[in-house]
Amino acid sequence: MKFSKELFGKSLFAIGTVIASVSGAHNPPYWNILTIGCILAVIGTILVRWSLSAKNKTASSNSASIDLARHLETITQKIEHFVADAQQQISLEKMKKSIESLQLEEILPVTEKIDEMSLRLGIKNYAEVFSVYAQGERNLNRAWSCCADNHYEEMKLSLENALMYFCTAKTEYGKIQQAKV
């Protein structure tokens, strides 16, 4: 098992908090034990912050590990094709497989790197991009469910909504990238 400063820090914080709470609840408080609990909690907090800071630096230096602009472009292009296919009454089973493929090839890699993305973009920018990204993802999942349940019209509507949300996410990310220049 790999040693994790973050996990160790969280454990120290939890243990310190319990020790401080139990010793402080006694009447009169056990001041020596309470102090030790507080010190453990503070050390745990410092370790967690240190670990998160190191993750942030790693995420910043590995910014090429995921190209969000490329993923968003590919996602929107594929969903545009899905919408066009839906207008031509493509079979629901074929559409379901196409949506599954998109989810595995483009959506899943972004989802797996969500922590890195939040660190790299910062909380405000992350919220601007990924709040609409998540809505697009939900609508894409809904389109898949509609395919499985044979609801063609609802599938088309969900795909159109997914396209709108992913296009918005792409636009928001483009604004963030322009602001950096």
Overall description:
- The chain has 181 residues and is mostly helical.
- It is built from seven helices and no strands.
- It has helices at 5-25, 31-61, 68-87, 92-112, 114-121, 123-148, 152-180.
- Helix 4 runs antiparallel to helix 6 and helix 6 packs antiparallel against helix 7.
- The longest helix has 31 residues, at 31-61.
Features:
mainly alpha, single chain, 86% helix, 7 helices, elongated, 181 residues
Order of helices and strands: HHHHHHH
- Helix/strand-derived class? mainly alpha
Fraction of residues in helices?
Answer: over 70%
Radius of gyration: 23 Å
Tally of extended strands? 0
Number of helices: 7
Largest sheet: none
- End-to-end Cα distance: 42 Å
Overall body shape: elongated
Low-confidence stretches: none
Tell me what portion of residues adopts beta-strand conformation. Answer: under 5%
Please, what is the average pLDDT?
88
